Structures are given as structure tokens and as C-alpha cells.
């Protein structure tokens, strides 16, 4: 039912009207780091592992949430992977429902082979910031679009601060997935409320308070 309601909300929000999508990954801890060896519920190494949070400069045990939003900050799609996997590993699963869009990401999503596959199979053009040692440079148009990356970081921060993404306290992998799905759905409801009443679509904190 939540999946069906999510599709309805996305249509009402006009989420597909623009072709720009922005992608980023953020950590989802499942237990305290020092208790990672004692957990039985989250010991499947295919789904869970040790990751590193650059913002906090600390390691955590759990998963990565790969989130895709549009230019307005509306979550379009997401995917969960083990925290130990590189960001680019979550790219193809996260975009499986997308087609014919421009996808903007940070350097963690660099990878010529996967970019070519997405371009041929789903007409998805991936734009990432070029590294200093690369001969090919970003065009002026790409540089302008890359400035949108900050928006997905704002959305991730709200999911953590307002919806407690880093403190879900789930008891099982199924419970964790369910709570994340509910968080994304709740976030969509908040953005829809703001749009309906002509408010800043990302003024989530005011609604919850």
C-alpha cells in the first residue's frame, strides 16, 4: 500500500517533469560499532558491513542508503547496500526504474564502463566531477549542474536530523528496510504538504515541530 501511495504522491508532486536527477549515498548504522561482532540479526555480510563516514570521521557498521532526488529535492528512488561497498556499486540498482535522465553525482560514482552501460541500456547520462589527474575536464554546463549536488546532501541531513535515519533501532533486516521505506514515504508527504500550501518544499522541520 505504501508503494502505491508513494507512486501517487510522486505523480501529484510532478516529480518526473524535469530530467535532472541527483544521487548520493549516506550511512545507516544498525548497531553500535563496538557491538558489531555480537549482532546476530545483522550478521549477513552480503547486506551489512563496516563503512566510513567522512563527515564524522568515524567508522560504522550497517548499510548505505543510495538516494536519488530531483531538482526540487523530492526523493525519486533509493537502494540499500552493505556499508563496505563502494558508492558506485549501488548505482545500477538505484536507477533501475529510471530512463532518459541526467544523473549528477560526486566522484564516488566515477566509472566509465558503468556509465556507458547506463547510457546504452537506459539512456541515462551520468555526470560526475572529474579528478584533477584526468585529461578530460567537465564542461561549463556540467559544472553548473554539479552545483546541484549540495541539494541531496541537504535531504540526507534532514533524513538524519528530523527522521532519525541513523538511529532506527530496528531488530531485523526486514524491520530496517520497512522503517527506511516509511521514512522516505513520510518525507514525501511533508514535501507534498509544503507544495500544496505554497511553502518552501524542503521546510520539513517546521512541519514536524
Q: What topology does this entry show?
A:
Layout lengths: L1 H11 L7 E12 L17 E5 L4 E13 L4 E8 L8 H4 L7 E4 L6 H11 L2 E4 L11 H7 L2 H13 L11 H24 L7 H5 L1
Parallel strand pairs: 1-5, 5-6
Antiparallel strand pairs: 1-3, 2-3, 3-4
Q: Would you give an account of this structure?
A:
The chain contains seven helices and six strands, in the order αββββαβαβαααα. About 35% of the residues lie in helices and about 20% in strands. The chain has helices at about 1-10, 90-95, 110-120, 140-145, 150-160, 175-195, 205-209; strands at about 20-30, 50-55, 60-70, 75-80, 100-105, 125-130. The protein starts with a helix and ends with a helix. It has one domain (about 1-209): Nucleotidyltransferase, domain 5 (2-Layer Sandwich). Strands 1, 2, 3, 4, 5 and 6 form a six-stranded mixed beta sheet that branches. Helix 3 (about 110-120) links the parallel strand 5 and strand 6 (about 125-130). With about 210 residues, the chain is of the alpha/beta class.
